[in-house]
């Protein structure tokens, strides 16, 4: 019925051992399994990509023009300053859902600003791994509409 691309930004490969008090103990593979399970309920295919490198994420977004109906992205720290990631997302013109494990508005001031949010359909922040599950539900609605 549709195809999703889930992009995890810098340091999210360390989930499960990184700042467990903030991000919890579910690994990136665990999150990806939760996403796959939820996507299956809506007959959505999912591909996953993680990189610690801004340019690689830009390349991946550019390639997404071939065949994705929605991008779910947790840009990690790139959220707060990467105009390059933002511009790539605008260029490909695919609906974007921004996700965060933590509630970025409850944290340090420098995390309160997202350069992605204003070009996303919406942002889901603060529900731990469930942020991604909720994003899949939102993607299913967007694709259906
Ligand atoms: C994050 C929040 C960012 O501020 C941080 O740099 C991350 C993870 C989150 O999922 O809560 O790497 O995107």
Characteristic terms for this protein:
145 residues, alpha/beta, five-stranded parallel beta sheet, 5 helices, globular, binds 1,3,4-trihydroxy-5-OXO-cyclohexanecarboxylic acid
Task: Detail the topology: elements first, then pairings.
Elements: E1 2-8, H1 20-23, H2 28-41, E2 44-50, H3 54-63, E3 70-74, H4 83-92, E4 96-100, E5 122-125, H5 130-144
Parallel strand pairs: 1-2, 1-3, 3-4, 4-5
The chain binds 1,3,4-trihydroxy-5-OXO-cyclohexanecarboxylic acid.
Count of discrete alpha- or pi-helical segments spanning 4 or more residues:
5
| Computed CA radius of gyration, to the nearest angstrom | 14 Å
Ions and ligands: 1,3,4-trihydroxy-5-OXO-cyclohexanecarboxylic acid
Give the tally of structural domains: 1
Please identify the oligomeric state. Answer: single chain
Q: Percent of residues in helical segments? A: 25-40%
Main β-sheet description: 5 strands, parallel
CATH topology: Rossmann fold
Low-pLDDT stretches are none
Structural class: alpha/beta
CATH architecture annotation = 3-Layer(aba) Sandwich
Return the average pLDDT rounded to an integer.
Answer: 97
Overall 3D form: globular
- Could you give the order of the helices and strands? EHHEHEHEEH
Strand content: 15-25%
As laid out across the biggest beta sheet, the strand order is 2-1-3-4-5
For the record, give the distance between the C-alpha atoms at the N and C termini, rounded to a whole number. Answer: 12 Å
* Total DSSP E strands: 5
């Amino acid at each position: 019925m549709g195809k999703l691309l889930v992009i995890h930004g810098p340091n999210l490969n360390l989930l499960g051992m990184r700042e467990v008090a903030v991000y919890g103990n579910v690994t990136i593979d665990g999150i990806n399994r939760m996403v796959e399970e939820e996507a299956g309920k809506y007959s959505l295919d999912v591909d996953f990509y993680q990189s610690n490198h801004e340019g690689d994420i830009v390349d991946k977004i550019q390639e997404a023009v071939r065949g994705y109906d929605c991008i779910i992205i947790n840009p990690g720290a790139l959220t707060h300053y990467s105009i390059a990631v933002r511009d790539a997302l605008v260029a490909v013109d695919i609906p974007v859902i921004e996700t965060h494990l933590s509630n970025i508005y409850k944290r340090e001031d420098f995390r309160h600003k997202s350069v992605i949010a204003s070009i996303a359909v919406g942002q889901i922040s603060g529900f731990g791994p469930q942020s991604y599950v909720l994003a899949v539900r939102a993607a299913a609605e967007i694709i259906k509409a």
